[in-house]
Amino acid sequence: MLADFNFRIIFEYLPLFLTGLRSTFLISIVSIILALVTGTIACAGRISSIKLLKYPAIAYIEIIRSTPLLVQIYFLYFGLPTLGIRVPEIQTGIIALMLNSGAYIAEIIRAGITSVDDGQIEAGVSSGLNYFQRMRFIILPQALGVTVPPLLGQSIVLVKDSALLSLISVMELTRCGQTMTSERFMPTEAFLTVAFFYMCIYFCLKSLADWSQKKLIFREAY
Amino acid sequence: MIEFKNVNKWFGKLHVLNDINLDIDAGEVLVICGPSGSGKSTLIRCINRLETIQEGEIVVDGVPVHDKKTNLTKLRADIGFVFQQFHLYPHMTVLQNVMLAPVNVKKMSTAAAEKISREKLTQVGLTDKAGAHPAQLSGGQQQRVAIARGLAMSPKIMLFDEPTSALDPEMIGEVLDVMVNLVSEGMTMCVVTHEMGFARKVADRVLFMDFGKIIETGKPTDFFDNPRTDRAADFISKILTH
Asked: Which of A22, A128, B67, B69 could form a disulfide with B77 if both were Cys (CB 3.0 to 4.6 A apart)?
């Protein structure tokens, strides 16, 4: 099998793959940052006692989590232009990934916040600390520790999900594989290369996650 | 100092506080006992509005606790609360735990807050543990830190919700000693506890609750030796046989 494997063509297409990798990387970074912002806002709404903030946040989180990402991408891709909003595919893709991951991140952050023992919050209340002081001094420092590993996990998911943007012709890593396949009809070489690059990103993020986890566990143990 | 007027509270259908009338004077030490679920914790949690009430009025040092206009921060800053499970902040050192409220609620300077916090840690016998984290301390030490944390706000009232119930027997004494020491300073205290030795030694009054009602109140010697109600006599005989 390996004898049939054409390495030459991979090297020939390497510049294309590298632009794809760069594009996947940039899309992922921008999407993750925007998703963190979206997720934080959605989580703040979700745990708020103000109904006007809480229910829209719940609706957003539930709608996103109950529908496939691909449907969401198509919805934005075909839906936005009918509303008269014309944005390039790549922006559409970033918005889709941001909205999708934002909902999951909102739940991750919420889990972190609710993981802090109620008793500590009561202790804060009874000594006169207000809501923001309790958040800042008691809840967030502890919530941050437990949310970092799952947030990195969500980032890994987002990177792989960005492959779906190939379906709205964003020139990212997977799309490069498709391009090579249609030009030379060598899908094995094309997608093995694509897979290899995704694995590279995955292992970078995973080692970051492992490192942060060790760091956090160490901090708890003293 | 603390006044309950016809206070009623329900958790759903459960009538957890049933027409409570109570006056606690400044400097008085009140011990509240009773079977679990009798409403004793709820009673003291209403004093700093950790719990709301549906009927009646609670006045603390002239301030109506459950009035909408009441400045809760000010009220709570004046009332120290010690929990059964300590509830120290595990990510902070002992000193940071004690300093947090003085700096952020009372807006004291860091230096002033540190000074009073160290004083209070000395008072509870933990001068040398200021830099430790709660997880490094024994249960008894953690509870003493929790008491110091309350005292650092220079409160007018200290509330204790079963402060020794989560402790190993050999650590109960060190916590009670700190509390006895507080009594001698003239602190107004409400203590939910089953430590009868403590009650006999320092309580001005014992209050016995069951089913959300105050069944009996009296001086500790009268209450323990000559309970007036069968319910109280039954309760006392049960806790003394163990």
From this structure: A128
Tell me, yes or no, whether A170 lies in a domain. yes
Q: Does residue A61 fall inside a structural domain?
A: yes
- pTM above the 0.90 mark? no
A1, part of any domain: no
Taking only the tens place, the pLDDT of each residue in A177-212 is 999 999 988 888 899 999 999 999 999 888 888 887
Query: Judging by beta carbons within 10 Å of its beta carbon (0-12, 13-18, 19+), is residue B4 exposed, middle or buried?
Result: buried
For residue A139, the chain B residue with the least C-alpha distance is: B89
Nearest to B27, CA basis, from B64, B58, B48, B2 = B2
Q: Domain residues for A204?
A: 21-220
Interface test with A, best of B100, B107, B147, B159 (most A CBs within 10 A): B100
Which residue type occupies A199? M
Q: Which of B76, B91, B135 sits opposite A142 (nearest CB)?
A: B91
Helix axes B139-151, B94-104, angle to 10 degrees: 20
A11 domain-assigned: no
Collect all residues of chain A within an 8 Å Cβ-Cβ radius of residue B50.
122, 125-126
Chain segment A119-167, per-residue pLDDT in tens: 999 999 999 999 999 999 999 888 888 888 899 999 999 999 999 999 9
CATH number of the domain bearing residue A48: 1.10.3720.10
Counted domains in chain A? 1
Structure ipTM? 0.90
Q: Give A129's contacts in chain B (Cβ within 8 Å).
A: 100-101, 104-105
pLDDT at B141: 96
Q: How many angstroms separate the CA of residue B228 from the nearest CA in chain A?
A: 36
Half-sphere exposure of residue A109, counting CA atoms within 13 Å on the CB side?
23
